[in-house]
Amino acid sequence: MIEESGLGDAQGWIPTDRNTLEVKGVPHVYALGDATDLPVSKSGSAAHFEAKIVAARLLAAIRGEEPKPDEATYDGEVMCFLETGYNKATQLVFNYEHPPRPPRDACIAQPGQRAPTMGDASIPSPLHTAPAPTRPAMTIH
């Protein structure tokens, strides 16, 4: 569908304004979810938060009003759950300004060693902020 519409780039993503979710170069057309070229995870969570922004922008247009920035500006918010082992999990919430930080090398098993788990006291938590990743976003090993 993206290819046939002519909206996609060479890689099949729809060039999307990261704050308004408007398709670049096509006024009043919005994209969300895993079709966008945004530097966020391609997940239902991202689409959930993006949908609120698109709805606010559409309602403002129908009413003939300017969109309210606090309701109609996407900040890259994504939420996901991460299994940490031993029947435990944690919730990760991040955005453009506070992206997740990849695990440190200490969290990756070396050849011939067992992979450390989050339950190991010697493993630092990967839940810190770092510079924004390039797209496509987040891969957790």
In short:
With 141 residues, this protein is α+β, with helices and mostly antiparallel strands. The protein has helices at 2-5, 44-63, 69-72, and strands at residues 78-85, 88-94.
Total individual domains: 2
Q: Helical region count?
A: 3
Global geometry:
globular
The chain-level mean pLDDT equals 79
Poorly predicted tracts of residues: 122-139
The class by helix and strand makeup works out as alpha+beta
CATH homolog superfamily of the largest domain: FAD/NAD(P)-binding domain
Oligomer: single chain
Order of helices and strands: HHHEE
Structure write-up:
The chain has 2 domains: 71 residues, FAD/NAD(P)-binding domain, CATH 3.50.50.60; 58 residues, no CATH class. Helices cover 20% and strands 11% of the residues. With 141 residues, it is an alpha+beta fold. The C terminus is likely disordered. A two-stranded antiparallel ribbon has the order 1-2.
